[in-house]
Amino acid sequence: MQKARNYYVISYKMLSLGFLVIYMCNAAKAQPLNIKNDVFWNTADGRPVYSQGGGIFKFIDPVTGKKKYYWYGAHYKEAAIYRQDPSVTLPGPTFLSVTCYSSVDLVNWTFEGDVLTRATLDSNMRTTWVGRLGVAYIPALKEYALFVQHGNQVLITVADAPNGPFSWYRRINMQAMIGTTNTGDQTVFTDEDTGKSYLIYSYGRGRNKIYVSEIGVKNGLIDLLDCTQVFKGASREGNCMFKYSGKYYMCASNIYGWDASDAYYMVADNIRGPYKPVDDMAVMEGCEQDYAHVTQTGFFVTVKGSKKETVVYCGDRWAEFAGNGLGYNQWFPLSFNKETPVFNSLSSWNLDAKTGEWTIGSNNNYVLNGSFEADRNHIPSHVKPVQTGLLGWHTVVTEGNIVSLDSSTSPVLNYFNTTADRKIVTGEKSLNITDKIPFKRKVYQLVGSRSKLPDGLYTLSAMTKGSNGFARLNMYADTGKKARRSDIQNENDTWKRIDIRHIAVTGGQVEIGFEADGAADAFCYVDDVSLTKE
User: Fold this and answer.
1) pLDDT attached to residue 17
2) How many other C-beta atoms are found inside a 10 Å radius of the C-beta of residue 120?
3) Which end of the chain has the lower number of beta carbons within 10 A, N or C?
4) 353 pairs with which residues across the strands?
5) What separation in angstroms does the CA of 476 have from each of 172, 446, 458, 473, 497?
6) How many CA atoms lie within 13 A of 497 on its CB side?
7) Residue 308: CB partners within 8 Å, gap ≥ 6?
8) pLDDT > 70: what percent of the chain?
9) What is the CA radius of gyration of the chain?
10) Where in the chain are all domains bearing CATH 2.115.10.20?
């Protein structure tokens, strides 16, 4: 996230100039602020943001008495290591603390502190897995309750203020309620219209059921007051929800470990259902071509502005541990077609938290799955998800082996980057253009097929690396009125960037891609494809 510029430079000897500067400052404050994905985020004062598997809630600031956003999440040791060196994938997460950040605009964040530490947990019992958490305010006790997965049960910790510190309260064994001691995944959802908070969670084994439980006080203790099963079907994780225009949306991701997947949803008029589709979940429109911008469903924030209500999808990006691209937190605005939510896969967008309005960022990359991280396996893949093509991309074979699930003949469409590769390009995977026999192939994406590109000049860029043996190898951009090409040099044994500049887009679409005419075993790797407005 970008740090807001400080325009407070006032000369008290020049009052007229001072008033002008103040006016400009206020105007700048009213403007939308930028949210940049595919990068690691910092606080307003430049500290790293470490927050995963959590949630954002609006609470009263104990100092100012005004509401602001509080963001809670888990800080894992490996997050800092991967941030410093994204060329490696680490074996797994080691919990350090629950962090808390605060903000009034959802862009500039202040670190409030480590509100629950590993030392606090270890002083009560041995810490194993800690994650998937959220905070609810308990009016009857005037306390804040942090619900967090802790080993094989649900832990409740409490604090007198939203910025903690939180202390051990009690653990809940979920066995009597749902049949397993633990929840699968969980989040906390607060209904701003009623003030009530709920734990949203899945069955602990298999995760094929989803439940809603109101959070409150029972027998003098903070507890779950009830349990309503709202879904039974295919296994789901990353359970979370939002409310929009009076309707409740239950969302989840697929069971792909910690890799990305489609974002699923179902909708109801009552938080306890019935939800539609019944015991099924629809795929959120707009997420299919890059698996929700290479994320899992994390949580949602609803911004009720003076002009517009905007729901922000807050996705987690992580694998065991990391490797799926840069940045752990990836946020996107949702659009709605009546009651149907639409995911907007953007690398850069602007949000005005006061008005609720959002716009696409001037530096947005319009290419979907441009770093080829959305595909979790070698493609074609025989294991879930079974697929023959790269997400977001089309492959046309004119000569050579056809792309199929026949692993003995089909070319492999993606390349798994080495540690050395990842010091230059992003993530674990790249596009792989090769075959065992002579081949002619085109790999392309029609940018603007779902929502039109703004008119203007664009630059298409990519990183490439490959062998000799090509009669023709190029990157191209075709607007329908004019095609531009850039040759890719043979025997490029180091990653090099290629560009096509000043692509004039006037029809709302442009086809981008790569064309190859190669000998047997000739290869070209492509990564970090971007199309940005000049």
Assistant:
1) 34
2) 18
3) C
4) none
5) 58, 12, 13, 10, 14
6) 11
7) 355, 356, 357, 358
8) 94
9) 25
10) 42-360
Specify the residue for token string 């790999």. 443
pTM comes to 0.93
Is residue 19 within a helix (H) or strand (E), and if so which, with residue range? Answer: helix 15-30
Whether CATH 2.60.120.260 fits 394-533:
yes
pLDDT in tens, 296-337: 999 999 999 999 999 999 999 987 888 999 999 999 999 999
Q: How far apart, in whole angstroms, are the C-alpha atoms of residue 149 and residue 186?
A: 8
Residue range 42-360 in CATH 2.115.10.20: yes
What's the pLDDT at 31? 52
Q: How far apart are CA 478 and CA 515, in angstroms?
A: 12
Q: How far is CA 27 from the centre of its chain?
A: 30
| Mean of pLDDT values over 61-66 | 95
Question: Of 256, 372, 261, which is closest to residue 320 (Cα–Cα)?
Answer: 256
Separation of first and last alpha carbons in the chain = 21
- Token pair recorded at residue 331: 């946020």
Q: Find out whether 474 and 514 touch, Cβ atoms under 8 Å.
A: yes
State both tokens at 253: 């991701």
Residue 129: what residue type? W
From the list 414, 415, 469, 418, the residue with the least C-alpha distance to 440 is: 469
- Contact in structure between 108 and 3 (CB atoms under 8 Å): yes
Where in the chain is CATH 2.60.120.260?
A: 394-533
pLDDT, tens digit (0-9, with 9 covering 90-100), for 104-142 = 999 999 999 999 999 999 999 988 899 999 999 999 999
CA-closest candidate to residue 312, choices 35, 3, 39, 103? 35
Q: What is the pLDDT of residues 377-423, one digit of tens each?
A: 999 999 989 999 999 999 999 999 999 999 899 999 999 999 999 99
Q: Name 222's Cβ contacts closer than 8 Å, sequence gap at least 6.
A: 138, 141, 143, 145, 156, 158, 169, 170, 215, 216
Rounded to whole angstroms, the Cα distance separating 166 from 136 reads 12
Q: Which run of H or of E encompasses 218?
A: strand 209-218
| CA neighbor of 248 nearest in space, from 208, 291, 300, 288 | 300
Segment 195-201 mean pLDDT = 98
- DSSP-derived letter for residue 256 is S
Is 19's pLDDT higher than 90?
Answer: no
- Which two structure tokens, joined as six digits, stand for 521? 């075993």
